[in-house]
Amino acid sequence: MRCRIVLACAAGASNKDVAAHLGSTPHAVGRWRARSVGHRIAGLGDMPRSGGPGTVTDEQVAAVVKRTLKSTPKNATHWSTRATAQETGLSQSTVSRIWRAFGLQPHRTEAFKLSTDP
Q: Does residue 16 lie within any of the structural domains?
């Protein structure tokens, strides 16, 4: 969308015409036009946002994923977010976010089990 805005503006169209043609707003077209003029191609990328840097390293994420997939805790059949958090030193919500990002659900079994119920 950003590239289409800049190309249409370079062809000489007004902000209002470009917005109507691309389904955007004149304000957004003006913003991308100004950024492309001021920063050229680099202006079309995402600028840094507010907020602190992440505190969880890639190695910590890899350790949580490996522990979840390759081992089981003592006296349990699968890892819980709280047990994993205790073992790794991370918070329970951080472990939960990592699991969600990788689609991990250790409480769900992947094996077929025959029922002994008559």
A: yes
Give how many domains the chain has, as a whole number: 2
pTM beyond 0.85, yes or no: no
Q: How many CB atoms lie within 10 A of CB 18?
A: 23
Q: Which residues contact 32 (CB under 8 A, 6 or more apart)?
A: 2, 5, 6, 9, 43, 44
In a domain, residue 112? The reply is: no
Position 71, amino acid: S
What gap in Å lies between CA 92 and CA 109, rounded to an integer? 21
pLDDT digits 0-9 by tens, 60-96: 999 999 999 999 888 888 999 999 999 999 999 999 9
